[in-house]
Amino acid sequence: MHTVTAKTTRLLELLGHEEGPFGVCYSDIKPEGGFGPKPGEIFSRERETAGQIDWGKAFSNFSCLMGNLWLARKKRTAAWISHEECGCMGGGFYSGLYSPYLEMNVFYVSTGVPGTPMEGEHYLPTPESMHAFMQDTAPPAAPGKYCVIKPLEQFAPSESPLVVTFFARPEVLNGLHSLACFAAGSHLAVVSPFSAACGSIVAWPLVYQQRGEERAVLGGFDLSARKFLKPDEMIFSAPLPLYNKMLAAMDNSALTRHTWEGVRKKVHRSRRVWGEALNEGETPG
């Protein structure tokens, strides 16, 4: 068993959380049996500038990385994206599969595309503010053809995730937030920047790590991706070095103290409210 996976079992027990985390990695081999887009438009600034992207085709064949990850979570399998099988101009960019970002994304996420009826999502107030965001969140270049997000237990002993991601409701997030700050020895160990949901899983954790900043990222605030998350559920992603620190620190952290036991009872109550059965041997709160 992968060392990180074995220790994660202990962390899940402390948290009272049932769903195991996913890991982000890159590969030149397409995952078998996973969920990803079909071949379609290839996004690049060069093709955009030359007017070679068929936007009608691109939007009609839209395939969200978070939507595929939602399906992957149900089956405990992989979700993936590549440059040739992308499905989403944002997902491809935030996964490091191409750069620079597309101008279409700038206008689509802000005030709309000039000269078209596309009104835009109005997530940021101006194209200028969107430009600043895209430049700030540009991830490292993908080291493989496929960006793969798969259950942590499916990592072979010879491979490691770059980022570890949990899907959880507030009480479990309390535990992860507390543990990250304890492990890093910093009150700034968890941040929540504006982002697409996939950006909070892939781009931002790797961007902070590239800058030498030890940060876990709280995500799931993307309005467009809420349909691919459970009610009240958010996303917690930590780059592997920080996650390893969390695993090393967990038995000395607040998660083994009396105060957390009170919160952990609320974790169990929340699972009962949402109809999520407790595992055999767990003590209901």
Q: Rg to the nearest angstrom?
A: 19 Å
Alpha-carbon distance between the two ends: 31 Å
The description of the largest β-sheet is:
7 strands, mixed
Residue share in β-strands:
5-15%
- Widest sheet: strand ordering: 2-3-1-4-7-6-5
The pLDDT mean sits at 94
The helix tally amounts to 11
The low-confidence runs, each spanning 5 or more residues with pLDDT under 50, are none
The SS-based structural class is: alpha+beta
Coarse shape = globular
Q: Helicity range of the residues?
A: 40-55%
Helices and strands, in order, run as HEHHHEHHHEEHEHEEHH
User: Would you count the extended β strands for me?
Assistant: 7
Question: What can you see in these coordinates?
Answer:
The chain is α+β, with helices and mostly antiparallel strands. Helix content is 40%, strand content 12%. It has helices spanning 3-15, 45-49, 55-60, 65-75, 89-94, 103-109, 127-137, 170-184, 197-210, 240-249, 258-273, and strands at 22-27, 79-82, 146-151, 163-168, 190-191, 216-219, 234-239. A 7-stranded mixed β-sheet has the order 2-3-1-4-7-6-5, with helices on both faces. Helix 9 (197-210) links the parallel strand 5 and strand 6. The longest helix is centred in the last third of the chain and has 16 residues, at 258-273. It starts with a helix and ends in a 12-residue tail after the last helix.
